[in-house]
Amino acid sequence: MQPLVPDQIETERLMLRQFKEEDWKDLHHYYASAQATKFTVGRAFTEGETWRAMCSMVGHWQIRGYGPYAVEEKSSGTVLGIAGFWYPNDFPSPEIKWALAPAHWGKGYASEAARAVQKVGLQYLPDISLISFINADNSPSIQLALAIGATLEKEVQFRGSNWHIYRHPSAI
Asked: How far apart are CA 171 and CA 151, in angstroms?
């Protein structure tokens, strides 16, 4: 499928771009952390599972025409994590997601990436009302969703726990 959104986005400090095969090594710093994955995949991954997760994100682009970006720090070339569009078949709606390795938390990278994705979504996917689908216990992600203008729409049961649907603004 032809991409519906740009395949890369540049911010002041970041390059959000398509994944490359070697990115799994940096991405594994996120997926190998039980702390970082507690509210997303629910456990630390093996290297093979990280590689397969990355490949599923590449495949998402092929099927949906949009997907998650590798979040690369421009100054170092290091992949810090993931940010972008995500819509697995069991999610309630297309979402803006973000996930960084713990070493990169608290530096504003996630909000910088998420705001850039919001802008691209508004420009290229204007007919999709994007959400962020966040585990109700994931306070840092909830704070980020609120900080970038998303509002709590409702709470739902998903995979055995409470999740919040945060709706992103239709204009920035």
From this structure: 13
